[in-house]
Amino acid sequence: MSTPHGCTDDSDVIATFKEALKQRVGHERFQIWFSGVRFVLEAADAVAGTADPSRSIVAVAAGQFAADRLSNHYLAAMRGAAASACGASTTVRVHVEDRPTLQAELPFAEAGASDATDAGDATDAREPDETSRPASSVRQERRTAAKAAAASVVRKPRGTQSLQAILRDGTDSRKSPRPKRIATSRPTVSAAGAFAGGITSQATKAEVKPSTTETPHHASNTRSECSWENFVGGQCNELARTACKMAIESPGLASPLVLWGPPGSGKTHLLSAVAGKLRGLHRMRRVVYLSAEEFTNDFIKALNGNCLPAFRSRFRDADALLIDDIQFFVEKKATIRELHHTIEMLAEVGKPLVFAGTKSPNEINGLGGELSGRLASGLVCQVESLDTQTRTQLLARYAEERCLIPWPDATLQEIASVAGGDGRLLSGIVNLVALLQRMHGQMPSMDQIRQHGAHLLRSSGVPITLSAIERAVEKVFQLDSKSLQSGSQTKSITEPRMLAMYLAREMTSSAYSEIGGHFGGRSHSTAILANQRVRQWLDAGRSVGRGQAALSTDEAIRRIESMLKTG
């Protein structure tokens, strides 16, 4: 049978099937429910005794609970992934792994018996009288039964192997066996696996990594979990999401595309999602996606190792280039010059270019005028900090994926209202609640969540002070330092000063008298009047400032808030 996407052996077929399944169920859900599942490709005649060349993918689950969940909730997704990856004639079956036989062969089965009992998917299939017999006698009987089963297996044609033999030996005879290593260190526990009730070893985690032919070596596990389908959209990221969708549908149309905003607003997720879509939809084989630090490190290694031509060939012959955290390039003149030439060459042939950073290119001091102008020549979109509605949706999704007990709507709303707009902070809160659920056996109350996670609920960004607001307003309106505290009455200074007083009242707990005193020793009535004036400007849609620095009141407030959140 000809395999899609150029797969020539069973391992390629299984890898392609896993990638298709991840896209259907989502990477995080795949990590939780399929990390302990092995997939085996069988010929149809090994199952049904026919000469039909079609194939069957067998999902080998660790226990009956896991097998029932796969059959009840994910069988349709597995069939769809098998059809897209291996052909429409491919069938899917779910099989329960013979756990006692495998455990009897392991030298640490007795020591890990209590751990196996704690695992949610494992079942104890011993006979009732086995507990009263010596362990050596039980192991000897199991070995004898395994040898008898091996002797009764019908010889298969070359290139095939029965599922029973694979389950018994733990290896596929079609491939050269690798020497087994006995782990001397503690097993690695993945966050998703731990909260789902299972401990995932390094060997199991290796099975769910994306194929190296589709994911560059720079991409981390976090990036691989960020797809377009599981991105939570909202008003805070609507502009950037639309721009990324345009870049996916028409690569190179608005290139380079720059996304900027505070940390945790979803920029890295969007970059990873765009990279995945460019590979999947447009079949781009050389999509280079990495961080600015990785680009810099590779450039330095190429210089030190006299490998600069190979470095340039790898980046300048790429089908698409996506770089995260461009603020890392500040004051790295040689790297900036190399990146600028790379961008120019790719832009000339219409290759898609996407970048992300905490500030817009023109606001990153030390990036260089040429590179800043080149990045700004495409499309620059702001990604704002997560608003309350988006935080609620993201919390609900994290809670559904990681928690055993559903969250009440009141808890979701309350945490979303007090937590900061950083998506990574929300992930940490959900992990904490999942741990408290395991500890108490029920959904914790808000008092319990505050008791153990007060530091997370209080973390809403950098501290906002009157001085921080003053510096941000002066930078947005291109004013000299301390000009807002001066006695100048020109409109280019008085209007930004009133806006600064308004923001100081809205974003700090300072009194009117304290605000007025900070901005040039003015009275509390001046601060009250400034607050009223800015509200009128917002209602009327008036602009603030003069000349090139003039901005609408809404836009000025958004820029100042973003600058305050990024420090």
Primary descriptors:
567 residues; alpha/beta; five-stranded parallel beta sheet; three-stranded mixed beta sheet; 26 helices; disordered N terminus
Distance from N terminus to C terminus (CA atoms, Å) equals: 58 Å
Low-pLDDT parts are: 1-8, 45-52, 101-132, 152-224
Proportion of residues in helical segments = 40-55%
Proportion in β-strands:
5-15%
Please give the oligomerization state of what you see: single chain
Total strands: the figure is: 10
Give the biggest beta sheet.
5 strands, parallel
Mean of pLDDT: 76
Number of helices: 26
Strand order of the largest sheet: 5-6-7-4-8
Structural class: alpha/beta
As a whole number of angstroms, the C-alpha radius of gyration is 29 Å
Shape: globular
Summary of the model, kept short:
With 567 residues, this protein is an alpha/beta fold. It is built from 26 helices and ten strands.
Molecular structure report:
The longest helix has 23 residues. Helices cover 53% and strands 8% of the residues. The relative contact order is 0.07. A five-stranded parallel beta sheet has the order 5-6-7-4-8, with helices on both faces. It has a three-stranded mixed beta sheet with strand order 1-2-3. Strands 9-10 form a two-stranded antiparallel sheet. It is globular and about 95 Å long. It is built from 26 helices and ten strands. The N terminus is likely disordered. With 567 residues, the protein is α/β, with parallel strands linked by helices. Helix 24 crosses helix 25.
